[in-house]
Structure formats: C-alpha cells, structure tokens
Design brief:
Blueprint (H helix, E strand, L loop, with lengths): L7 E4 L3 H12 L4 E4 L3 H11 L5 E3 L3 H6 L6 E4 L5 H10 L8 E4 L5 H13 L3 E8 L1 H7 L2 E5 L2 H14 L2 E2 L2 E2 L9 H29 L4 H11 L7 H11 L9 H4 L9 H12 L4 H13 L2 H10 L12 H34 L5 H7 L9 H12 L9 H24 L4 H14 L5 H12 L3 E2 L6 E2 L8
The structure holds 2'-monophosphoadenosine-5'-diphosphate.
2'-monophosphoadenosine-5'-diphosphate (ATR) binds next to helix 1 and helix 4.
Length: 472
C-alpha cells in the first residue's frame, strides 16, 4: 500500500521546532518530524499526535525518505554548530531542487556562507527569521524568509499559511536572497532592545515621580489604547502587576536588576558599524543592558560618584506622565527609523532589494515588536520614497508636535540624575540629522592639523590641506 508522504518536515523537536511542527500540522500539512534524540520526537507524538498528521522518524534517512519531492525541510536546532551539523547530514541525502530552510536565529553572514554551500550541492537554502517566541511558533509567528525566488515559490505558501495574519494578510513575505531574511530578523531584535529600553526609562521616570507599580501598570494599560498600542506595552502592564508568589511583593522588585542578552542586539550594532549606519538609539539599548550587567563597575561607581539621587518632585503627575508618553513614542519612532535605515542600506550593499514597506507590514503581528505604529510605518514607506522614516508626512508632523514634551522629559531626567540614554540619544539623533551644520568642519580641521588628512571646502572642489602654524 502506498504510504502517505509528508508535505513538509521539521528537524529539531525542542521548544521552537515542536511548536512550529504542530502549527504546520494544525494547518493541515502532513508534517515529518525528526530530532537527534528520538525521545523528544516521541514526546511530540505522545502529547500532540492527535492534533494533525505527523510522520515521525528515528533516523534522518527515514525522515528524508518520508518527504514529498521537492523536499521542504525546516531546521529548528540550536543556532551555530547545530545548524551546520544538520546541514552536513542532509546534503548527501537530498536531491536537486530540494529546499533546506534554516528557521533558527542565525547570524546573516553564516546564512550567506551556508547558502553558497547548499547551492553548490544543487539544493535551495532559505534563511528564515522567525519571531514570536513559543506561542508565535505555535499560533502564527512573523516570518522573514531569504533565499531564491524559486525556493520561495515552493516554500512560501506553507510559510504564509502558518504565519500570523494581520487583517487577512500573512505576516510573511519574500525578503531577498541569501542572508536577507536573517538580517531583517536581526534588526527586528535590535529594535526590540530599543523598545524595551524606552519602556524601562519610562518606568524609571514614573517610579521616580512616585507612582506605585499598580499605578504604573494602569498608565501602561492606558497607553496601550492609543498611539503606543503594542505587545510590549501591553505585557509591561502585566509584568508590573505580577505578584511574587514567594514574598507577596511585586515581582519586578525582587528580580535582579541585570539584563541578559543572547547577542542579536549586539549583531545589529556591529553590522550597523560595518555599514556605517548610525543606530545610536539601538546601541544605547545594548550598552544599557551591558551596564546593568556590570556589577563591579556599578558597585565602584555607586560609592565613588556624586550627583542628584534620581528622585523627582513633580507637581502635575498627569502632565508629566503624558510628556513621558510622547517622549517614548518619539524615541520609538527614531529607533524604528534607524533600524529600517540599516535594512535599507544593507539591502543596497548586499543587493537584496528589500522592500522596507513590506518588512514593516510583516511585523504588524506575530512578532515581539508588533505595534499599531507598524501599520502606519508600512503605509508611509509604501506611499512615499523615504530616505528616513522621520520625514514621513504623518510622522514628522507628530514629532513636531511632541518634541517639546520629549525635550522636557530629557531635561527633567538629566537635572534629577535619572539616566535616560535611550530618550536622550534618540533626541540627539533627531537634532543631529536636522541640523544644517554639525561640528564636523572642526573635526576635519583637527584631522588635517595632526594628520594631514585633508578636508573639502564649501566653495571649491577637491581636497585641501593647510600649512598649520604647528607644522614644522
Ligand atoms: P529551543 O527551540 O528550545 O530554543 P535550541 O536550544 O535552540 O532549542 O535547540 C535545541 C535543539 O537543537 C534540540 O532539538 C537539539 O537536539 P537534541 O534534542 O538531540 O539535543 C538540537 N541540536 C543541537 N545541536 C545539535 C546537533 N549538533 N545536531 C543535531 N541537533 C542538534
């Protein structure tokens, strides 16, 4: 009797892989599953086998043989060595035209390298960024696939079907060749760092103004009904309300004040530095986590450094709260502008031809940075030929309106000794990019003075060098 072949396969039955495989099965795909250690595959079958059609294999050869051709295989294993190991095992088992998708959090340069290797074996390689965590993988993540158009024709429909849907549109689109998808996912995470840093600064200021955790939770819940409507603002309210089961205190007050990170924020900044794209709001967020996790530095500085104690006496708490809301929104817009600029420039540099409007569109749901703002950003990029998001008609108008509040918040914070690196560096970027002249003419003068690096003039073409009085 003819045995049923699977439509798609997933390798790696840990949290993300099993959730994604179940998502596929729920959507009606016969799903082949495999894990290096069979126990995890068995667990999926035992606990979820009735949710759809799974074809489980103990051996990778059987897994490959259980798939319809061209085979479509999604790798969901530990990024790095795990991904390379699985690719190496698959290559000799596959046939021309088969498609390998890497759904892990891979660094885009690794994806570029792997794509070459897989292509040379006559196969397709798709580097697919997936955001949304465990729930997203199970119920519909935001998906950012990069690879050949041909591979997308075969794989795209499945990815679009299992992705989140925003008003009927899939949160998945073809991003570009080789590393484009993982690059976009990387920047998504960088923006996520910035978003969380801004929320943290708003929290610090509200707390300094005397609000209780409950009151702050109410403020974030209210913000979530307006312009700031987003997943991260929504869950901030819930985190602030959470009571610690062990002590009965607010959980946020018993969590150690040191932020962890897995590296995607750092990659975003490293890549921006290489491309020469300024993403200072994002880098401040990465460095803020680094400072939080530098206990020795903080301990020494705490006992050595003088300054205001970070408390605020605010007369009109309601007005101050609204100022913070506007500072948060404006800073958020700057971080998105920087991240999308990094994507736009990388697209040019790597020949990816990335459609920035489409990227914003697939972030509207499923992913961690999903926000009402992204619908507007997507429309603005689609309607205008933007160099920067900040020049988009509806965005620049709102920034013009909100900037007084933004400046007040930064001024108040700095005067009181409350660190707001995200808010202040976003504001500095806003002022830098709109300034007719920065301080670079002096920098060039200095460089020419000490190193004869030459400078350009405003009134003549060419490179000039001055014989400075200090020259011998
Ligand atoms: P999560 O989805 O929970 O974040 P992860 O830590 O990213 O998971 O990846 C864990 C998965 O990668 C597991 O399925 C693991 O297989 P085992 O269950 O056998 O440990 C898989 N994995 C890690 N390294 C691997 C390798 N070298 N070859 C094959 N699979 C590997």
């Amino acid at each position: 009797p003819a045995t049923q072949l699977a439509d798609v396969g997933v390798i790696g039955m840990a949290v993300m892989g099993s959730s994604l495989a179940r998502n596929m099965a729920h959507k009606g795909y016969a799903t082949a599953i495999f894990n290096r250690t069979f126990a995890k595959t068995q667990e999926v079958i035992d606990n979820h086998g009735s949710e759809g059609t799974f074809i489980a294999s103990e051996k990778i050869e059987d897994f490959v043989a259980s798939l319809e051709r061209p085979r479509r295989i999604v790798i969901m294993v530990q990024a790095g060595k795990g991904t390379d190991a699985v690719i190496d095992q698959l290559i000799p088992l596959l046939e021309a035209g088969d498609i390998i998708v890497d759904g892990g959090n891979s660094f885009y340069e690794d994806t570029i390298r792997r794509e070459v290797k897989v292509r040379e074996a006559g196969l397709h390689f798709v580097g697919c960024g997936i955001s949304g965590g465990e729930v997203g993988a199970l119920e519909g993540p935001s998906m950012m696939p990069g690879g050949t158009r041909e591979a997308y024709e075969s794989m795209g429909p499945i990815l679009e079907k299992i992705s989140a849907q925003y008003e009927g549109e899939p949160c998945c689109t073809y991003i570009g060749t080789d590393g484009a998808g993982h690059f976009v996912k990387m920047v998504h995470n960088g923006i996520e760092y910035a978003d969380m840093q801004f929320i943290g600064e708003a929290y610090t200021l509200l707390k300094a103004a005397g609000l209780s955790n409950e009151q702050m939770a109410d403020v974030f819940a209210e913000w979530n009904t307006g312009d700031l409507d987003s997943y991260l603002i929504e869950i901030t309210s819930e985190v602030l309300r959470q009571v610690d089961a062990r002590t009965g205190k607010a959980l946020v007050d018993v969590i150690v004040d040191a932020a962890g990170m897995k590296g995607t924020g750092t990659w975003t900044v490293q890549s921006a530095l290489k491309l020469g794209v300024p993403v200072n709001a994002i880098s401040e967020a990465v460095f803020a986590r680094a400072i939080s996790s530098s206990p020795e530095l903080r301990e020494h500085a705490q006992s050595a450094l003088e300054g205001p104690d970070g408390s605020l006496s605010v007369d009109d708490v309601k007005a101050f709260t609204d100022d913070i809301r506007q500072a948060l929104w404006a800073s958020k817009v700057v971080a998105y502008a920087q991240g999308l600029d990094e994507i736009r420039i990388a697209g040019q540099e790597y020949g990816w031809e990335i459609d920035v409007a489409a990227v914003a569109k697939i972030w509207r749901d499923g992913c961690i940075i999903r926000a009402k703002l992204l619908d507007r950003i997507s429309n603005e990029y689609a309607a205008n030929n933007l160099v920067t998001l900040l020049e988009a008609p509806s965005i620049k108008a709102e920034l013009a309106k909100g900037q007084d509040a933004w400046r007040r918040v930064v001024t108040t914070a700095i005067t009181a000794g409350v660190p707001v690196p995200g808010f202040s560096s976003s504001l500095a970027y806003y002022d830098q990019v709109r300034a007719p002249r920065l301080n670079a003419s002096l920098t060039q003068g200095l460089r020419d003075y000490f190193g004869a690096h030459t400078y350009r003039r405003i009134d003549a073409e060419g490179a000039f060098h001055t014989l400075w009085s200090g020259d011998k």
